[in-house]
Amino acid sequence: MTSEILQLFCLQFAVYIVWACPAGWIKHGPACYHMGPEVESWFDGMTMCQIHGSNLASVLNQEEHNFIVSLMKQYKKDVVWLGATDWDNEGTFVWEPNGDKMNYQNFGHGEPDDRLNQEDCLLIDGSSNNHHTFVWDDRNCYDRNYYICKQMDDITGNLVG
Ligand SMILES: [Ca+2]
Ligand SMILES: [Ca+2]
Fold first, then answer.
1. Is residue 60 assigned to a domain?
2. Residues near ion ligand 1 (Cβ under 5 Å)
3. pLDDT single digits (tens) 21-51
4. CA 106 – CA 108 distance, rounded (Å)
5. Do 28 and 20 meet the contact criterion of CB atoms below 8 Å apart?
6. Domain-embedded: residue 39
7. Do the domain assignments include residue 16?
8. Looking at the CA of 135, which ligand is closest?
9. Is there a domain that residue 63 lies in?
10. What is the 71 CA–ligand 2 centroid distance (Å)?
């Protein structure tokens, strides 16, 4: 084995053994997820995630959406804040805190509707008492809902996001 290959092997092994999710977090793909145990405003949810080295979760594709929905079902949390707002530009949701553009969306029919001109924060709504079945909706950021944090694997440079 050349030293180059050996180095690569060691690096991969180091990444493998070092990267584990904190206790209480669930590993999926390149990230760790944690369902907030209490309802919070969007702001307080984001703060709690950040205190724990993460952000409110971004959802980058259908597979990740499906995974988070599976966690919502598992933990019996019908309505869960995600990490996006249209605070900067009404009607254009971006992933916070970096303002990353959305390349994937899964809004329910008629959403986002900015109801009463007061809905700037994103959640997944799985409530059984309306027409929303695990699709995205904008809500008042001060509403209190469950929330999900997402911590990226920082070893490969995808730092917290
Ligand atoms: Ca809005
Ligand atoms: Ca709405």
1. yes
2. 86, 114, 120
3. 999 999 999 999 999 999 999 999 999 999 9
4. 7
5. no
6. yes
7. no
8. 2
9. yes
10. 22
